[in-house]
Structure formats: C-alpha cells, structure tokens
Amino acid sequence: MRYDVVVIGGGTAGYIAGSILARKGKRTLVIEKKKFGGVCVNSGCVPSIFLFDVTFLLTRLKEVAYYLGLEGKVEYRNALQKRNEIVEYLSNAGKKLIEDAGGETEIGEAEIISPNEIKINEKVVEFDKLIIATGSKPKIPNIKGIEYAISEDEAVNLNEIPESMVIIGGGYAGVEIAQFFSRLGSTITLLSKATILPNLSEDARRSVRDSLEFDGVNLVENVQINRIHGEGVFTNKGEFHGEIIVYATGREPQLPKGVEKIGLYTNECGVIVNEYKQAKGNIYAIGDVTNKERKTAHSAIFDAVVASLHIMDEKSLLHKINGYKIPQVLYTDPQVGIVGEEKDANKFSIFYFNATTRAIINGIRDGYVKIGINKNGEIVFGEVIGDKSEELINILTLAINSKIKVENLALMPFVHPSLSEAIVNTAKGFFDMDVDRYRRTNDKT
C-alpha cells in the first residue's frame, strides 16, 4: 500500500497536518501509537487548563460576588471525572477530524525501515513524504530516588486530590501545577533550582510569585535536590515531605522507532529542521519532536501548517508566514501572555487594568498590558498579565506578525467597555493619549 503522505503521531501537530493534506487531495495516513490528541489533549494543555478553570472559579467566585454585591458559593463535586470526559471527547475528535477530511488513521507503533517505507501492525507501507510528529515526554531528572516521584503528565491526570505535594521544577508546568493543587486544598511545596520562570520579565515573575504566596504555596528557590526517598525530598535547604512528589523538569523529544535508519540530525531538543520543517529530503518533522526549546500546542499547529504548505508547494502562502512570532501563555492566576522579544524593543508603554472600565465593572483588576516598539515604530513585543491574557495576547500576536505600527493600533476603534481596550490604551501611551488613567498613575496607583 502506498500513500502520498504518512504522518507518525496523532497529536496536535499530526492531526492538523493529516487533516490539511487530506482535504487538499493527498492520500494520507496518520498513525498513532496510543491515543489521538497527543500531549496537549491527554496530559498537557487540556487537563491543565481544565484545572485552571476549576480552581479560578473556586477561588475567584466568592471575591467577585462580594465585589458585585452578591453571595456566591461553589462546591467541589466531580470535576476530575468531567476532566476525563473532556479529554476522551477531544481525543476521539482528533481521529474523526482526520477521517472527515478524507485521511486514514491507524493505531499502532510505526517503525521506519527506509526513507520511503514504514512498518505498522506487521505490514509495510510505502510513502512519498513522511512527517514525524511523535511529540515529547517528560524529562526525567538525574536525582537519586526519582522512582518515588511522578511526572507532570501524571500529576494533571490524578483522580484524587492529595493532602500534600512536593513539586520539583520552577518552569511553566511546575508553577501551574503548584497553584492548581494548592487551590484544590493540597499543601504545596515548590522547589526550583534557580529563580522560577526565568524567561519572564521581573514584573511578571513578581505577580506570579505574589499569587503563589497568597495561595499558600511554599516556594523555595535556588535549591539543590540531593535525593528522594518515600515521601521525602532531601535538599541543601532541608527536608520537604509530600504524599505525592512531582517532577516538572522539562521535556525531551520522543523519537519514532527506526529513526536511526534515515540519518536525521538531532540534538537534545529534537530533530533539526529547516524553515519549512524539512529534516531531510522527503522527511519532515513538526511539533514537540523538533529542536525547539518552547514546546507548545500552538507552535505545533504552526509547524503543521508550514510543513503542509511546503508539501503542497504553496510558495506564496509560505512567504507570508515566514518569521512569524509564536505567543506563550502561562496558565496561572493571573495569566501571563508573551509574544515577541523584549530585547528587540527600544521603547515601552504600560497600561494597567485597574484603569480599564470593563475590569472595574467585573472586579478582576490586577495586571497590565505592556507593548514594546522598535525605532521604526513597529510593535515587536507584547506582554499581558491578568484576566483573559490567553485571548488578549492574540491581538498583539496579530499586530507583531502583521508588522503594524503603533500609531495604527493607537487609533484603532475597539469596543467600549472591553478588556482589550487596555491594548489600545497602551498604544496610545506612546503619544500621551492614554487619558483613561491619571497621568500620575505610572506607579499603578
């Protein structure tokens, strides 16, 4: 049997590429080893963001109700069962979307046997193009006794709330898990070998650190883990105990079986690819398996689009998206969204949500929007801290990737009142037109 394209991996990158190519008339087969949906659906974004939503409501409802003159109460019931149902639904949806597009799917472990052949379920399949989309897995730290701990993927799929938890790792996953389970009632210790969230600005890091402290998380930074035994983590700063110990120490590529037979170049981050996601000739790699440090579902989707366009020889569309910046979101309360590089900007403007009418109405007023521009007045950096950052950062992503100049954004009519007005007001700040705040409020007063 021969296909135009075989995709190994049915996660976010794999199902998007498979669906696009099938819709465009390519005979496409998508192979998934276990469950469609990959890391994002089964053990990453979906269960994590579900826990964010649950804990946000549990924590914020009483506060907002009081602010609005109401009495509100939410009781924890069967949230974890609902999480499992959503994960299962979205996993099945990925498979169905490929098939709806005209592609074929198969469950099993694929083995690459040559640059034009793979073996799956005891049969050989030939192909013209191969896309490797096998994702990533938690990186196991070199700590004595690590077998006593569970991974970040396992943590977000726990079916019971532990009384206590020690989390090793101060990156996105570790910080998110710490806040989720603290708000669900666990006693949390978060251990970080350096400062938490090192790629965030100091203002963003301070906001998250303050929130963790408010939620009762015991944050210990600049700590060295010596060993784990039973429910204890032994460090240079003392012993810490938890019913559950979690390691959230980064991710590493999950390469397919037989990959060594096709001579791809790899490094510790994954398969090395060019700007079109080509690894070698007719072999492509997309998503978490590639050599990028920031592994997210939306960057995997972007990879899938780029590879698909290249396979279809859509040169004009590829030219349009060359050099696009990918946003990042931290799902804590407050949320943090970032796009672009702060070092590319030479001038900044900030507008705080506590001067935004919509935030004053709904009562969730913490955070700000920050925009950075270059010497040509182009928006090159955006940072949003606060409610709905996951949505608002997309506006700044559009502005940066469209090379919009700040004066165009400043003059753009946005709905009033809305949280997104804070973006326009930030842009207006470059021209001293951000009149929704007092001029003395640069210090957040």
Automatic annotation (TrEMBL):
Keyword annotations from UniProtKB, A to Z: Disulfide bond, FAD, Flavoprotein, NAD, Oxidoreductase, Redox-active center
GO molecular function, one term: dihydrolipoyl dehydrogenase (NADH) activity
Domain FAD/NAD(P)-binding: 3-302
InterPro entries with a match to the protein in the record: Class-I_Pyr_Nuc-Dis_Oxidored, FAD/NAD-bd_sf, FAD/NAD-binding_dom, FAD/NAD-linked_Rdtase_dimer_sf, Pyr_nuc-diS_OxRdtase, Pyr_nucl-diS_OxRdtase_dimer, Pyr_OxRdtase_I_AS
EC number: 1.-.-.-
EC class of the enzyme, as a word: oxidoreductase
All residue ranges annotated as the Pyridine nucleotide-disulphide oxidoreductase dimerisation domain in the record: 326-426
GO BP, sorted A to Z: 2-oxoglutarate metabolic process
Cofactor(s) in the UniProt record: FAD
The family this protein is said to belong to: Belongs to the class-I pyridine nucleotide-disulfide oxidoreductase family.
Record-given protein name: NAD(P)/FAD-dependent oxidoreductase
The species this protein was found in: Sulfolobus tengchongensis
